[in-house]
Write a structure and sequence with these properties.
By secondary structure, this protein is an alpha/beta fold. The chain is 32% helix and 18% strand. Bound molecules: flavin mononucleotide.
């Protein structure tokens, strides 16, 4: 199954970052939503890279996901997609693991404050995973989602995500 790149994403920004990370990781990477990645098969992954959007300086909750659906939806504003499982729930469902792991999130602010990435990495380490590298945050603009999924990302973030994927691949080979 190679390296799993698993994500939760309401408006496609974390998804776009996850895809770029998978590209950087190379042909060994498989891009999966939290609904596609069966936790009971995570033992088959050679490594796990997991990401989610920051909600309330942490991982999204049922409540924060639902509040996202109250945002304006029209021709200029895409609707939040809640069809995939929350990352929080996916992490809880994982069996004990010992694979290398890394975590990322998408957020409005810079490095200040807690994010979702540290919560993801801590949960993976609690399951027994070993840390590949420090958690990473990728930046989105502070505005409502536009008409297209993934259009909140700040310029250059996908290049950074691809480069981080390449760096993770070389750390995994070392
Ligand atoms: C309910 C809610 C709470 C949020 N809280 C934060 C926050 O505490 N810090 C932050 O930087 N961004 C926050 N954001 C912005 C999200 O990080 C942003 O919507 C996300 O990166 C978009 O990713 P996605 O398209 O993959 O869902 C919040 C967004 C929502 C909807």
């Amino acid at each position: 199954m190679g390296i799993w790149v698993v994500y939760e994403s309401l408006w496609g920004n974390t998804e776009a970052v996850a895809r770029a990370i998978a590209e950087g990781l190379g042909t060994d990477a498989t891009l999966l939503t939290t609904s596609q990645a069966d936790p009971s098969r995570a033992l088959e992954a050679s490594a796990i890279v997991a990401g989610a959007p920051v909600h309330g300086m942490n991982l999204p909750t049922q409540q924060s996901r639902e509040s996202a659906t109250s945002k304006k939806v029209d021709a200029e504003h895409a609707a939040a997609d809640l069809s995939t499982r929350p990352m929080r729930e996916w992490l809880d469902a994982l069996p004990p693991l010992s694979v290398p792991a890394a975590a990322f999130d998408t957020r409005v602010r810079g490095p200040l404050g807690r994010g979702a990435n540290t919560a993801i990495l801590r949960a993976l380490q609690d399951k027994g995973c070993t840390r590949i590298s420090a958690p990473r945050g990728f930046l989105v603009n502070f505005s409502s989602a536009g008409p297209e999924r993934g259009d909140l990302l700040k310029a250059g973030q996908l290049d950074e995500a691809r480069a981080w994927g390449t760096e993770l691949a070389s750390l995994l080979r070392a």
